[in-house]
Design brief:
The chain is mainly beta and 77 residues long. Strands 1-2-3-4-5 form a 5-stranded antiparallel beta sheet, with no helix packed on it. Strand 3 and strand 4 form a beta hairpin. The termini are far apart.
Length: 77
């Protein structure tokens, strides 16, 4: 038997340039996840905050930390 799953989310992203090289980023929203089977559906608020460093025209490094309905998230790109 196959399992039905669904993910619905509403997300707003924003950014604020601090200076020529740094930009503050973030997101806020709401998620509703249902993976079917034995797992309970999870729903609730979601959000993150991050920083982007752009030392040159074609180079950027970004990192963020946040929370989703399944727990804490981290990203470094």
């Amino acid at each position: 038997m196959g399992r039905d799953s669904s993910l619905q989310s509403l997300l707003a992203e924003f950014g604020y340039r601090l200076n020529r090289r740094f930009r503050l980023t973030g997101s806020v929203g709401y998620e509703d996840e249902d993976y079917g089977g034995d797992k309970r559906a999870q729903h609730g608020p979601t959000g993150s905050v991050g920083l982007v460093y752009s030392p040159g025209e074609r180079t950027s490094i970004s990192g963020s930390i946040g929370h989703r309905v399944f727990g804490m998230t981290k990203s470094f790109i």
